[in-house]
Specification:
CATH class of the largest domain: Mainly Alpha
Bound molecules: zinc ion
Strand content: under 5%
Number of strands: 4
Largest sheet: 4 strands, mixed
Radius of gyration: 41 Å
Distance between the termini: 31 Å
Shape: rod-shaped
Number of helices: 5
Number of domains: 2
Protein backbone atom coordinates (compact mmCIF):
# COMPACT_ATOMS: atom_id res chain seq x y z
CA UNK A 1 0.00 0.00 0.00
CA UNK A 2 1.27 3.46 -0.92
CA UNK A 3 1.67 6.19 1.62
CA UNK A 4 -0.25 9.33 0.64
CA UNK A 5 2.86 11.31 -0.14
CA UNK A 6 4.20 8.51 -2.35
CA UNK A 7 0.84 8.49 -4.08
CA UNK A 8 1.31 12.20 -4.88
CA UNK A 9 4.80 11.63 -6.20
CA UNK A 10 3.50 8.74 -8.21
CA UNK A 11 0.75 10.85 -9.79
CA UNK A 12 3.18 13.66 -10.58
CA UNK A 13 5.62 11.20 -12.13
CA UNK A 14 2.76 9.75 -14.14
CA UNK A 15 1.85 13.19 -15.51
CA UNK A 16 5.49 13.98 -16.25
CA UNK A 17 5.79 10.70 -18.13
CA UNK A 18 2.62 11.47 -20.07
CA UNK A 19 3.94 14.95 -20.88
CA UNK A 20 7.13 13.47 -22.31
CA UNK A 21 5.08 11.00 -24.36
CA UNK A 22 2.83 13.79 -25.70
CA UNK A 23 5.84 15.96 -26.50
CA UNK A 24 7.58 13.15 -28.38
CA UNK A 25 4.44 12.31 -30.35
CA UNK A 26 3.81 15.92 -31.32
CA UNK A 27 7.45 16.39 -32.38
CA UNK A 28 6.97 13.39 -34.63
CA UNK A 29 3.71 14.80 -36.02
CA UNK A 30 5.40 18.10 -36.82
CA UNK A 31 8.18 16.34 -38.67
CA UNK A 32 5.65 14.30 -40.62
CA UNK A 33 3.66 17.42 -41.55
CA UNK A 34 6.86 19.05 -42.82
CA UNK A 35 7.63 16.07 -45.06
CA UNK A 36 4.05 16.08 -46.38
CA UNK A 37 4.25 19.78 -47.15
CA UNK A 38 7.49 19.27 -49.11
CA UNK A 39 5.94 16.30 -50.93
CA UNK A 40 3.01 18.45 -52.04
CA UNK A 41 5.43 21.09 -53.33
CA UNK A 42 7.40 18.35 -55.09
CA UNK A 43 4.28 17.16 -56.96
CA UNK A 44 3.52 20.75 -57.99
CA UNK A 45 7.07 21.38 -59.21
CA UNK A 46 7.15 18.08 -61.09
CA UNK A 47 3.98 19.07 -62.96
CA UNK A 48 5.48 22.47 -63.76
CA UNK A 49 8.75 20.90 -64.96
CA UNK A 50 6.83 18.47 -67.22
CA UNK A 51 4.74 21.29 -68.68
CA UNK A 52 7.88 23.24 -69.56
CA UNK A 53 9.42 20.10 -71.02
CA UNK A 54 6.36 19.58 -73.27
CA UNK A 55 6.52 23.18 -74.51
CA UNK A 56 10.27 22.84 -75.07
CA UNK A 57 9.81 19.61 -77.08
CA UNK A 58 7.05 21.17 -79.18
CA UNK A 59 9.15 24.27 -79.92
CA UNK A 60 12.17 22.15 -80.78
CA UNK A 61 10.15 20.02 -83.22
CA UNK A 62 8.78 23.19 -84.84
CA UNK A 63 12.35 24.50 -85.18
CA UNK A 64 13.49 21.28 -86.86
CA UNK A 65 10.53 21.46 -89.27
CA UNK A 66 11.44 25.05 -90.17
CA UNK A 67 15.09 24.07 -90.69
CA UNK A 68 14.23 21.22 -93.00
CA UNK A 69 11.68 23.41 -94.84
CA UNK A 70 14.34 26.05 -95.52
CA UNK A 71 16.92 23.39 -96.44
CA UNK A 72 14.64 21.86 -99.06
CA UNK A 73 13.78 25.32 -100.44
CA UNK A 74 17.53 26.03 -100.73
CA UNK A 75 18.05 22.74 -102.54
CA UNK A 76 15.18 23.61 -104.90
CA UNK A 77 16.69 27.08 -105.47
CA UNK A 78 20.07 25.55 -106.35
CA UNK A 79 18.41 23.29 -108.92
CA UNK A 80 16.49 26.23 -110.41
CA UNK A 81 19.62 28.33 -110.66
CA UNK A 82 21.34 25.47 -112.46
CA UNK A 83 18.39 25.17 -114.80
CA UNK A 84 18.62 28.91 -115.50
CA UNK A 85 21.98 28.39 -117.17
CA UNK A 86 20.49 25.93 -119.68
CA UNK A 87 17.44 28.05 -120.58
CA UNK A 88 17.45 29.98 -123.86
CA UNK A 89 13.74 30.93 -124.07
CA UNK A 90 13.27 34.45 -122.78
CA UNK A 91 9.76 33.81 -121.34
CA UNK A 92 10.88 30.67 -119.56
CA UNK A 93 13.83 32.65 -118.17
CA UNK A 94 11.48 35.38 -116.91
CA UNK A 95 9.14 32.84 -115.29
CA UNK A 96 12.00 31.01 -113.55
CA UNK A 97 13.55 34.33 -112.43
CA UNK A 98 10.25 35.21 -110.76
CA UNK A 99 10.07 31.78 -109.10
CA UNK A 100 13.66 32.17 -107.90
CA UNK A 101 12.95 35.65 -106.45
CA UNK A 102 9.92 34.29 -104.67
CA UNK A 103 11.87 31.29 -103.40
CA UNK A 104 14.62 33.59 -102.02
CA UNK A 105 11.96 35.65 -100.22
CA UNK A 106 10.44 32.49 -98.75
CA UNK A 107 13.90 31.39 -97.58
CA UNK A 108 14.41 34.80 -95.91
CA UNK A 109 11.05 34.48 -94.14
CA UNK A 110 11.92 30.92 -93.14
CA UNK A 111 15.29 32.01 -91.73
CA UNK A 112 13.60 34.81 -89.78
CA UNK A 113 11.13 32.25 -88.36
CA UNK A 114 14.05 30.01 -87.44
CA UNK A 115 15.79 32.84 -85.53
CA UNK A 116 12.57 33.50 -83.61
CA UNK A 117 12.10 29.81 -82.89
CA UNK A 118 15.70 29.48 -81.68
CA UNK A 119 15.10 32.36 -79.24
CA UNK A 120 11.95 30.63 -78.02
CA UNK A 121 13.73 27.28 -77.62
CA UNK A 122 16.59 28.96 -75.73
CA UNK A 123 14.16 30.73 -73.39
CA UNK A 124 12.30 27.46 -72.78
CA UNK A 125 15.58 25.70 -72.11
CA UNK A 126 16.38 28.27 -69.40
CA UNK A 127 12.88 27.88 -67.99
CA UNK A 128 13.28 24.10 -68.02
CA UNK A 129 16.63 24.31 -66.21
CA UNK A 130 15.10 26.56 -63.55
CA UNK A 131 12.13 24.24 -63.07
CA UNK A 132 14.39 21.19 -62.92
CA UNK A 133 16.64 22.86 -60.33
CA UNK A 134 13.67 23.83 -58.14
CA UNK A 135 12.36 20.28 -58.40
CA UNK A 136 15.70 18.74 -57.42
CA UNK A 137 15.97 21.16 -54.51
CA UNK A 138 12.64 20.11 -53.05
CA UNK A 139 13.37 16.45 -53.82
CA UNK A 140 16.44 16.77 -51.62
CA UNK A 141 14.30 18.35 -48.88
CA UNK A 142 11.82 15.49 -49.07
CA UNK A 143 14.60 12.91 -48.90
CA UNK A 144 16.30 14.72 -45.98
CA UNK A 145 12.95 15.09 -44.20
CA UNK A 146 12.12 11.42 -44.69
CA UNK A 147 15.53 10.38 -43.41
CA UNK A 148 15.17 12.67 -40.37
CA UNK A 149 11.65 11.37 -39.79
CA UNK A 150 12.76 7.74 -40.01
CA UNK A 151 15.71 8.38 -37.68
CA UNK A 152 13.74 10.39 -35.15
CA UNK A 153 10.80 8.01 -35.27
CA UNK A 154 13.11 5.13 -34.41
CA UNK A 155 14.67 7.13 -31.59
CA UNK A 156 11.31 8.36 -30.31
CA UNK A 157 9.76 4.89 -30.54
CA UNK A 158 12.65 3.44 -28.56
CA UNK A 159 12.18 6.11 -25.90
CA UNK A 160 8.42 5.75 -25.98
CA UNK A 161 8.54 2.03 -25.32
CA UNK A 162 10.32 2.80 -22.06
CA UNK A 163 7.96 5.70 -21.26
CA UNK A 164 4.88 3.58 -21.88
CA UNK A 165 6.24 0.92 -19.56
CA UNK A 166 6.95 3.52 -16.88
CA UNK A 167 3.44 4.90 -17.33
CA UNK A 168 1.90 1.44 -16.97
CA UNK A 169 3.91 0.77 -13.83
CA UNK A 170 2.95 4.14 -12.32
CA UNK A 171 -0.70 3.59 -13.23
CA UNK A 172 -0.66 0.13 -11.70
CA UNK A 173 0.68 1.64 -8.48
CA UNK A 174 -2.17 4.19 -8.31
CA UNK A 175 -5.17 3.56 -6.10
CA UNK A 176 -8.09 2.29 -8.19
CA UNK A 177 -10.07 5.55 -7.97
CA UNK A 178 -7.14 7.64 -9.24
CA UNK A 179 -6.41 5.13 -11.95
CA UNK A 180 -10.02 5.23 -13.15
CA UNK A 181 -9.97 9.00 -13.18
CA UNK A 182 -6.72 9.01 -15.14
CA UNK A 183 -8.10 6.57 -17.70
CA UNK A 184 -11.37 8.50 -18.07
CA UNK A 185 -9.55 11.77 -18.67
CA UNK A 186 -7.09 10.19 -21.10
CA UNK A 187 -9.93 8.72 -23.14
CA UNK A 188 -11.83 11.99 -23.28
CA UNK A 189 -9.09 14.46 -24.06
CA UNK A 190 -5.39 14.94 -24.61
CA UNK A 191 -5.17 17.42 -21.76
CA UNK A 192 -3.36 16.97 -18.50
CA UNK A 193 -4.93 15.02 -15.63
CA UNK A 194 -2.55 16.19 -12.94
CA UNK A 195 -2.14 19.96 -12.67
CA UNK A 196 -0.72 22.49 -10.24
CA UNK A 197 -2.40 25.44 -8.51
CA UNK A 198 -1.17 28.95 -7.70
CA UNK A 199 -2.40 31.04 -4.76
CA UNK A 200 -5.35 28.73 -4.24
CA UNK A 201 -6.45 28.83 -7.89
CA UNK A 202 -6.50 25.81 -10.20
CA UNK A 203 -3.78 26.16 -12.86
CA UNK A 204 -6.04 24.52 -15.43
CA UNK A 205 -9.56 25.97 -15.04
CA UNK A 206 -8.73 28.91 -12.74
CA UNK A 207 -11.46 28.06 -10.26
CA UNK A 208 -10.58 28.91 -6.62
CA UNK A 209 -9.95 25.85 -4.54
CA UNK A 210 -11.81 25.36 -1.29
CA UNK A 211 -9.55 26.67 1.50
CA UNK A 212 -9.37 23.18 2.98
CA UNK A 213 -8.24 21.78 -0.38
CA UNK A 214 -5.58 24.47 -0.85
CA UNK A 215 -4.21 23.62 2.58
CA UNK A 216 -4.00 19.99 1.52
CA UNK A 217 -2.12 21.01 -1.64
CA UNK A 218 0.37 23.01 0.46
CA UNK A 219 0.80 20.16 2.92
CA UNK A 220 1.87 18.01 -0.04
CA UNK A 221 0.46 14.89 1.57
CA UNK A 222 -2.45 13.74 -0.54
CA UNK A 223 -4.03 14.43 -3.93
CA UNK A 224 -6.87 16.95 -4.11
CA UNK A 225 -9.48 17.26 -6.84
CA UNK A 226 -10.40 20.59 -8.38
CA UNK A 227 -14.12 21.29 -7.97
CA UNK A 228 -14.09 23.11 -11.31
CA UNK A 229 -12.42 20.64 -13.68
CA UNK A 230 -12.10 17.50 -11.51
CA UNK A 231 -8.39 17.34 -12.29
CA UNK A 232 -5.96 16.14 -9.66
CA UNK A 233 -4.05 19.01 -8.11
CA UNK A 234 -0.57 18.57 -6.70
CA UNK A 235 1.90 21.09 -5.35
CA UNK A 236 4.02 22.59 -8.15
CA UNK A 237 7.20 21.23 -6.61
CA UNK A 238 6.04 17.74 -7.62
CA UNK A 239 5.82 18.64 -11.28
CA UNK A 240 9.18 20.34 -11.55
CA UNK A 241 11.24 18.30 -13.97
CA UNK A 242 14.93 18.61 -14.74
CA UNK A 243 14.20 20.53 -17.93
CA UNK A 244 12.07 23.26 -16.39
CA UNK A 245 13.76 23.37 -12.97
CA UNK A 246 14.03 26.99 -11.83
CA UNK A 247 17.49 28.63 -11.71
CA UNK A 248 19.15 28.72 -8.29
CA UNK A 249 18.38 32.39 -7.54
CA UNK A 250 14.70 31.99 -8.38
CA UNK A 251 14.56 28.69 -6.57
CA UNK A 252 15.48 30.37 -3.31
CA UNK A 253 12.73 32.93 -3.93
CA UNK A 254 10.28 30.15 -4.59
CA UNK A 255 11.16 28.35 -1.38
CA UNK A 256 10.86 31.63 0.55
CA UNK A 257 7.41 32.05 -0.94
CA UNK A 258 6.63 28.48 -0.03
CA UNK A 259 7.67 29.08 3.56
CA UNK A 260 5.48 32.20 3.60
CA UNK A 261 2.55 30.11 2.39
CA UNK A 262 3.04 27.43 4.98
CA UNK A 263 2.10 29.31 8.22
CA UNK A 264 -0.79 30.96 6.38
CA UNK A 265 -2.06 27.57 5.40
CA UNK A 266 -1.79 26.22 8.92
CA UNK A 267 -3.53 29.34 10.25
CA UNK A 268 -6.41 28.82 7.79
ZN1 LIG B 1 -9.62 23.08 -12.18
Amino acid sequence: MLTLSTELQNLAALQATQDRIDEALSALDELKAEVQEHSATQAELLKKRNDVQDRFDTAQRAWQDLESGVASRKEELRQWENRMNGLSDWREQQALQAAIRDQKRQIEYGERDIREKVEQVTALEDEYNGAQEALEDVERKVADGEAAYAGQRQEIEDNLAAEYQTRDELLAACPASERRRWENFSRRSQSKVVVTAHDGVCGHCHVSLLPMDWIEVLKKEKPVSCTGCQRIIVHESFLQTETDAVPVAEASDASAEQEADQPQAEAG
